[in-house]
Write a structure and sequence with these properties.
Layout: E1 9-12, H1 16-23, H2 29-52, E2 55-59, H3 61-67, E3 74-77, H4 90-101, E4 106-111, H5 120-132, E5 137-142, H6 148-156, E6 164-168, H7 173-182, E7 185-186
Parallel strand pairs: 1-2, 2-3, 4-5, 4-7, 5-6
């Protein structure tokens, strides 16, 4: 497109060169070596493309912070698939807020892959801390992935066996949306493989947002 003089945009989900750079510190030696050899050329190519794009769409603030300096028209985006019709009914929202304010059992939810990038064990650690603090809650992680069995084993052998559910992948969109509406908080830890990672704040009783 650039060679033909056509406008184009670049969309990124994460800082891929940093993801590769982080993999250079663990795993099989061949994988580490490949990561060391490729992460710098990857970063150069990322910047090369972004500089030439007419628009940069960067998913999330950290990705935006990493790439915006190389873009002539950078925009931070959050790619979610929620329509206005999917939002919680105002009356139901008010009822949930009143129940939470009255000290009722809190309901947490997360939807996503049970993958190291999503921090499932960090998530379980938070739940264990809440349990130790005497907080009354129940939590559900909707999604499958490489770490789902390890999560199940940890739950079965620890204090969360009567509090946390892992139903796995849920194909039905209506079921997922209902789980979001029923929850008080969406609790998640999305770990990006960058020099600085952070746990994003949970959204509140108005799920989905």
């Amino acid at each position: 497109a650039h060679r033909m003089g056509l406008p184009f945009y670049v969309w990124t989900d994460r800082v891929e060169s940093d993801v590769v750079r982080q993999s250079a510190t663990s795993g099989p030696w061949r994988k580490r070596l490949m990561a060391r050899l490729t992460h710098r050329p990857m970063a150069w190519l990322e910047h090369y493309l972004i500089r030439r794009a007419d628009l940069g769409l960067f998913h999330g603030q950290e990705t935006f912070d990493a790439y915006a300096p190389y873009s002539r028209n950078p925009r931070v985006v959050h790619d979610i698939h929620i329509r206005k019709a999917d939002h919680i009914d105002p009356g139901r929202l008010a009822g949930k807020q009143a129940a939470a304010a009255g000290g009722g059992r809190l309901r947490f939810v997360y939807t996503g892959r049970a993958d190291s990038m999503k921090g499932p064990h960090d998530w379980l650690s938070v739940m264990e801390s809440l349990d130790a603090a005497g907080i009354d809650f129940e939590a559900t992680w909707l999604g499958d992935g490489d770490l789902i069995e390890a999560m199940r084993q940890r739950i079965a052998s620890g204090p969360l066996k009567d509090r946390v559910r892992l139903p796995g992948f849920v194909r039905d969109r209506a079921t997922v949306l209902e789980a979001l509406r029923a929850a008080d908080l969406m609790v998640f830890c999305h770990k990006t493989a960058r020099r600085r990672s952070r746990t994003l704040p949970a959204t509140g009783h108005g799920l989905p947002t």
